[in-house]
Structure formats: C-alpha cells, structure tokens
Amino acid sequence: MANPAVTPAPLLRMEGITKSFAGVQALDNANLVVHPAEIHAVVGQNGAGKSTLVKILNGAYRRDAGAIILDGVPVDFRTPQEAVASGVSTIYQEINLVPYRSVAENIFLGREPRRFGFINWPQINRQAREILARFDINIDVTQPLMTLNVALQQMVAIARAVSFRSRLVIMDEPTSSLDEREVATLFGVINDLKADGTSVIFITHRLDELYAVCDRVTIMRDGKSVGDQEMSEITKLELVARMLGRELGEIRRSGQTGFTEKQRPIGEPLLAANDLKRGRALQDADLRVSEGEVVGLAGLLGSGRTEVARAVFGADKIDSGEIAFRGRNEPFNSPAEAIAAGIGLCTEDRQAEGIIPQMSVRENLTLAALPVLTRHGIVDTARQREIVDRFIKRLAIRTSGPDQPIRELSGGNQQKVLLARWLCLNPKLLILDEPTRGIDVGAKAEIQSLIDELARTGLGVLMISSELEELIEGGDRVVVMREGRTVAELSRQDATQDAIIGAMVHEDKTVRDEDGVEAPAAT
Amino acid sequence: MAETAREQATAPLEAPTAAPRRWREVGQAIGAAAFLLLLLLYNVIFNADAFLSLQALRLNLTQVATIVIVGVGITLVIATGGIDLSVGSLMAISGAMAPLIFLSDWPLLSTPFIGGTLAYIIPISVAGLFGLFNGWLITAFGLQPIIATLVLFVAGRGIAQVITDGRLQSFREPDWQFVGLGRIAGIPFQAILMIAVVALAGWALRSTSFGRYILAIGGNEAAARLAGVPVKRVKLAVYAISGLLAGLAGLIVIAINSSSDANQVGLNMELDAIAAVAVGGTSLMGGKATVVGTLIGALIIQLIRFTLLTQGVSDSVARIVTAAAIIIGVLAQRRRAS
Asked: What is this model's ipTM?
C-alpha cells in the first residue's frame, strides 16, 4: 500500500479482501484505504468487484479472507444493521425503503423516537423536515414515499443514510436516477459531509462526477485493486486505461485473441440505424453493419452500448430514430420479430437474460428455434436432437449430454449453447454483448475464432466488448459510444487503444486520433 | 496449452456434481409416488373394510377429480411463475349459469339437447373468458398474479350470487348430470375426465412448443422474451385454460349435488388445488412443473384425509395432519431448489 509515513491515520483500511461466489472469484486480495473527511471514488468495469467490496464492508456479504480496520479497530460486521450502528451506512442504486410509509417514517425506520413507548410523531416529522432542509428539499414529510418521483425518493434515501451520523457513507451509484440539478444538490451535501469530517465512498461510472467531487480514487479490475491515487494526479485517459488494464501508449501485442487479423470480404449492407433516441440512455446513436463484417462497439458502462443493441433487437422501444434491416424500414416491435427477420442477441448477463437454468442444454439450445421445429404445435424431437447433437459437436460444447441442465455447465460452455441458440437459425446478424466476459481463456479463444469464421461465411456481427484487444483484433470497424451517442467510428487501421480510450472519455464530439491527452477538468 | 487449461477448468467441475443431483431428482419424483403407494398399501391391509369397496373407491375418485382438474390449470399457471386464486369463484360462476340455461323456458333452450349442450358450452366459455381477463390484467398492466386473480376471487362469487339472485337452484336432469353422476364401465365419468385432462396437459407440457414456452417463462422470463418466446400470449392462454378447467369443475360439482349454491360451489378450491400442486412437486417459483405430480399430490391429500376419517379421527385433527403433509411436500421442494 501507499507509504504510511506520509498519510495520516486512515479511517478505513480494507486489506487483502478475498471473496468467491460458487467458485467464481469476485474479489482477489483487494485493498481500500479511506482517510477521514475524504471523498473516495471506487471505479472499475462491470464485474470488477466494486459492489462486492462495499457489500463486504457493510456486512451484506461475508469475506473469505482479509481484514477490515475501522478507526484502528478490526471490525467484522455480520449485518448492515451492525455496520450502521458503527457509523457505516450505505445508499444503494435501487431504493430500499418502504414505499407505502411516509417520508418521515422512512427516514426514521427502525429507530423511531418514542415517548412513553409510543412513536413520537411530531418529533419524527419535525426532525425529518430539518434533515431534508439540508438538501434544499421542502416537501410534506407525512406523504407516502411512493407519491414522490424516483429522484426525490433517492434523495430521501440519502437523507436517511446521512442522518445516522455516520463516519462513513457508502454511495453505490447514487446518481443514476438523478437529473443534473439533483446531482448538484447531492454534491453539495457530499461536500457538507466532508466539511463535518465524514468520509464518503462513492461508486459511479460517470467520470465527470469523479472529478467534480472526489479526492482520491481506487481503481478495480478483475477483483483486484489496481490503483489508489489522488484524483488530481490522474487524467481521465489514464484512469480508463487502468480500468481496462492497459498502459497508455503500450504497444499492442497481437495474437492475444482467437481472431486472425486478415481483412474479410465485406458484403451488402445489413443494418442501418440512425439517430436512435431512448430516454437518457440513448441520445443519438448511429450504427451500420454489413454482411461478413464484424463491427466492434466500445464504450464505458452507461455509454448506451447495450441499449443500442436492445433497441435494434426490438427488446426496448425507441423514442425516435430509424432502423433499417435488409430492406425493412421500421424498428422491430419485439425480439420475436427481430429473430424472424434474422437477428440474434447474446446478452451481457448470461444468468439473468440468457439461460433458462432449470432447462437442459437441448431445451436452451433450441428455445428460439421452436417455431421452426414445431409442426401443428408439436415439437419434432427427432430434428431437435439432430440439431443439438450437431451443434454440440461443431462448437465443442463440453457437456455430459444434451439433457444435462445448463446451469451445471461452465460459463464458456453456457455461452456456446447460447451462441448455438442463434446459429441453428442461420441468422444474418448476430449481436454479441460481451461475448467472452467471465469465460476461461481456452473457451474465449474458441469463441473468438468462431466469430471470425462465421463472419467469413457472410454473417454480420455487432460485437460489444470492454476488451480492447477483442475490439481491435476482431473488429473490421470499431464504433465508440459515450453518454448515449456514437462519438467515433474507427477503421481497422485507426482503431488503436489510445484512439478508442480517447473517444470513450473525450469531451469533444469530433474525435481525432492524435488529438492526444487532455488535462482533466477538475472543477 | 489452452486446451489443457480448459479441460482442467471444466471437466472435474461437472462430472461429480451432475450425477448425484440427477439421482436426487429421480428420488424425489419417485418419493411422492412411493408415499402414495404406501398409503394405498396401508389402506388395503389395515383399512380394507372401509377402503376396499366400490363405493369408497368411487367416493375417493369423485372427491379428488375436481381438485385435480382445477389443479392441472393451476399447475400450468404456476409453471409460468404465476398463481390463480380465482378458480373457486369461477367454478361458482359456471355452476350458477348452467341451471339457468337448462332450466330456461325459452323455446330454443327447452329442447334438452340444445339447452343441455349450451349449458356446458356457455358456462365453460364464460369461465375461460374470465380467466383471459386475469391474464389481461397481468400482461397489460403488469399486475402481480396474486393481486390480479384476487380481483375475481372476491368479485367472482358475488357475480355468481347476482346471477342466481342468491337462490339455491335444485334440479334433476339425469342426462345433463352425466358429467357428475355417470359411469363408464363402472368408473365415475369425472374420473375419466380427470385422467384425460392430466394426460393432455402432461403431453402438452412435454411435447408442444406451448408447453416448453410455459416452462421457459417460469424459468427466466427475461431470457425467454429475448429468445423470441411470445410471453404475453402464452400467459394469456395459461390463465384462460385455468379458467376453462375451473368452469368444467364447477359443472361437475353441481351435477354431483343436483343443485347449485353460489355460496358453496368451489369454496376453498384454490387452496386445495394449490396444496395438491405443491405436494406433487411443482416448483412454486415456476419453471418446473409436473401435472402427474399434481394428480399424485391430490390423491395423497385425499387418501390421508380418508384414512384418518375412516379410522375415526376427527375432521379437525385430519386437517392438521393434512397440513403437515403439505409442509413436508413443500420442504422437499425447497431442498431440491437449493
């Protein structure tokens, strides 16, 4: 860790924290040091272990190994309540309050001031008003929480956490449902907390917010803490490079992926999406994919890259914009329509949106193909088995048999089954959202070379990835998104690590490759 | 190099876990059936006087048939991750409508054939439409199934009472009452209906795309939608089927009783049927369902009650023992889930 001689005694030291879930290593020797009256950012890609780390701190999870020292005393919170009692409170992205109870009740939930054994309502309501006044919120505290909009509910949750007189407040993406004015108010409160000597752990994926409010940052990657630095000493570009596991200017070693770097023959245009807009998530996205082309889609968390894929696939309705696919000029109303037209989508989160855990490999593999495999409503099991056997062989899926439940397979083999779910339909366009995340090295290379091979046969592929090599070596073009907009489109020659990272974080709309590093605006 | 790394990573993980889990599932599937067999054996050996008579056999089959028929519908609903509380009230509605039709003085309806046929078709269709209404509340407004079907649980019996002005309707229509009183080769007709419904639903669940969609939705609705499964249509259909089967069960009940009482027909049926589903081994979380299990579950509950009652145990004690059986069945479920 950093030199202890120069730094004052830290408020919190988490050392060597290790945690695994069902054999998956979520945290591997992670460290976090927070000083008194410090606003400390924790950043990292999806799955880097940020949320797990703070959940271990606040007692929601138990650690497998490591030490937590709060104010010089080793602590071991078994529940979030214990953590709160010791001055560590947490605000989650999703609001965990009671929607039917009043605002005041929610703020004092579980610690209502009592008089003669009865809840002292006048006192509760008065104190609630005082607490909310710190946030410039003047509302009727006796109304049910559910009557407020989401942003206000979030502010109530924050007010509740702050009112515990915490020494340390953990905020896990608190701003995702707030508008700019509310974010500014929140930052005001955070600075007030700091002035009172309270420390804040702030998890966000919005880089501007980090620089606006944070003092220090811990960078996480693959369950490890890979950096602990003063905010003022690290540029946005460096920060993102560290999150992605890259050094700036590092010369790319080729051949790390299963992609061969030869130019593929590109065919007719398949997909053209223009000016896609959907709420705050998609503000202006354009996308083009042709037959036989692999288009890499890069962007940080929350950049809209998954949202653009879902919009094309008909999973989410767009507010406006044009989607044309093989001569059809209107957006798809449902995934079923998109599938019928020849599109497949492998989601980022296989567990939540990919596999049907109770079902077998066979059922999962043929789920999307059932309309084709069915005659008068009855599934043709002979053809079903034939297809399943063929794809188990072709993709080398390691399973004890087609009837093994898919949940028993390794991540890589689950992903192969999900790929086969689309490939057995002979799609024209395959959208892959993080196709190799959480997959062991061998299966990863296999999946990458499969994508390569499929593109050679004329399949168009839109590949969303956080792995720069995958984008650079696999993509014929790399499109970069930021804040719901497509901000750069790089040809194979121009798609360097620096160019992609630069486009991910840049303020400018027009990104030129050599525009170089810009000093972060530390406002 | 990559090859060996992967072999090491996956091979030892899968091999040892797969086999015992499979055996446990088989064991539990056999478990309920074995328990039923044990109950039967006990009755044959120690309770022969009460159990081994045609009359007792028919009584047991008659009592269990409506629970199973309704239970099959609820099994399909639960397989999608939902629940249907309205079935008892839908039984009351269909039971209230049928006598109004076949006892009607209208020239057309007074012909026994037309009146009798319509007295089947209309009440069952109406119950099916109410089931569709349940599905509509759930798919169009995103209501939780327990709340959406609570609407008709409460209102349905009221509707039945309004239809009949709260009067008890008695009748004697032997031909029409075949559904409740008739026998084929000595077997009560409703028991044959029950077996047919179980067989059809079991086949549909296993062999049709509709059945696979039901289980996919219950297993992971978001994933099913992204795989092109027509989630809304399947849910609508499942609640409609549950309504249709409740409508049929309502007719069986009034045919057996030769009377229709909107206050009594199908009372507490939703609870009996859900208990049978739970004991039978269908996961209440959705995604895993067995209609044969529901049949077995209903038979177990019926036989426990029958055994205790014929052994002179009071009804109240029999209820408590039945409840214990339900708890055991559900706990076995949870062990499998974890």
From this structure: 0.83
